[in-house]
Design a protein that fits this description.
Elements lengths: L1 H6 L3 H12 L19 H5 L10 E6 L3 H6 L7 E5 L9 H18 L3 E5 L8 H9 L7 E4 L5 H15 L7 E7 L2 H5 L1 H13 L3 E8 L1 H8 L11 H13 L3 E4 L8 H14 L3 E4 L5 H7 L4 H19 L5 E3 L2 E3 L1 H20 L1
Bound molecules: coenzyme A and magnesium ion.
């Protein structure tokens, strides 16, 4: 593989050694946390919250729309979300659940994308039926998306519902991504994350990311979306900081004006430079632009590979900080370089 040719065959071994050190920075849950659940130790949680499934573009497909579902296998998109929630009218919920359950086996076979299902929120009272219909089958979606989380208690309730469904399937791993889309969810974010990690560590439902639901958030704070999204800056930054503090993915808002590709590119570049790892999309025409903006460039990958190589050499000489391309390099820059190389390896493998 291209990356291995440059970094040499010992790269993975080197990476594993560093992982041990780097994971000390991952702070899943200490036993001082009110959500600590005995078995949720740093060592058994850290592998579970690595967040390495690429989700550069996250495409919604209404769960009751078979025509759109048929399209999925022809799309080159990291992540597809079959929706039971707001993309589906209230009188079509049952239709959506049944259609999703019916289409999952074929999608898992024919599509290269991660196939997920977005259930209704805990507060809607509809999510249990979604889970029963979609996840109590031989073929399940690869991830569950839980919208409109506002309090850690909802997380506990959700796990109480899904655990009995997943327990008999201990060898299957399902990923979990939660949505923050209200003012209350935003101010309760740390507790929500810690509760999700604690529950996730005790099950085969692995918590990997947080989605920012921008339009619901605007409704929640009583504003209209503007072109430059100034009204969302604080929420976006808070979600990024909290997600990154726990080594989770942060997935940015939808650009609902789906024919405006220029605006989409500007917003995607901005989101990526703020620290988001991906972006929600609603139309196939948005996928390529978003995935490009959330992929490391060839130059950036080369920079990262050379930096890792230089770091290895300076470590041998006992030098922690050193100069590379005219700039001071130490651990934080190494970590950045590694996540770039890791992502490029994952993307190369997926192609
Ligand atoms: N997933 C899969 N295929 C899609 C799609 C999607 N999200 N959106 C559009 N397509 C397909 C259409 O079916 C159409 O295929 P066809 O030519 O074989 O009929 C093709 O792509 C072109 O679509 P287009 O005619 O430009 O759009 P549309 O009028 O069919 O749909 C939307 C526009 C916005 C209604 C549609 O993109 C959509 O439903 N998006 C998801 C919305 C959603 O889930 N919102 C909730 C989460 S924010
Ligand atoms: Mg929403």
């Amino acid at each position: 593989m291209f990356v291995f040719r440059i970094l040499g065959p010992n790269y993975l071994q080197f990476r594993r050694g560093l992982n041990t050190k780097l994971l000390q920075h991952v702070r899943p849950l200490g036993n001082s946390s009110p959500f600590y659940k005995g078995n949720a130790t740093v060592s058994n949680c850290k592998a579970k919250i690595s967040g390495k499934t690429p989700r550069r573009a996250v495409l919604y497909v209404p769960g009751n729309d078979e025509r759109k579902i048929q399209k999925i296998s022809s799309l080159k998109v990291d992540c597809v979300v079959l929706d039971c929630e707001d993309g589906v009218a209230i009188n079509r919920k049952e239709d959506a659940r049944n259609t999703i359950a019916k289409c999952i086996p074929n999608l898992l076979e024919t599509s290269k994308s991660e196939i997920c299902a977005r259930v209704n929120s805990v507060s809607s009272g509809l999510y249990q039926e979604d889970l029963e219909t979609i996840f109590r089958n031989k073929f399940m979606p690869q991830a569950v998306m839980l919208p409109k989380v506002e309090k850690w208690q909802e997380i506990e309730t959700f796990f109480d519902s899904i655990n009995p469904i997943l327990k008999p399937r201990q060898h299957s791993v399902v990923k979990l991504v939660i949505f923050i889309e209200t003012a209350l969810g935003l101010i309760n974010l740390k507790e929500i994350i810690e509760s999700t990690i604690a529950n996730s560590c005790a099950t085969n439902l692995l918590f990997e990311g947080i989605v920012f639901g921008s339009d619901d958030f605007c409704a929640s704070i009583g504003v209209e979306r503007t072109k430059n999204s100034d009204e969302l800056l604080y929420a976006r930054q808070k979600i990024i900081a909290n997600a990154k503090a726990y080594d989770l993915q942060a997935i940015d808002m939808v650009h609902i004006d789906y024919k405006d590709h220029e605006g989409l590119e500007t917003q995607s570049i901005e989101g990526a430079s703020m620290g988001f790892t991906g972006k929600q999309v609603i139309h196939p025409g948005q996928i390529e632009i978003v995935q490009k903006c959330f992929s490391p460039s060839v130059d950036r990958i080369k920079w990262a590979q050379e930096l890792i190589q230089a770091f290895k050499e300076h470590q041998k000489l006992g030098q922690g900080a050193f100069t590379f391309h005219g700039r001071m390099i130490d651990m934080p820059l190494l970590r950045q370089a590694e996540s770039i190389v890791d992502m490029s390896l994952i993307l190369e493998n997926n192609n």
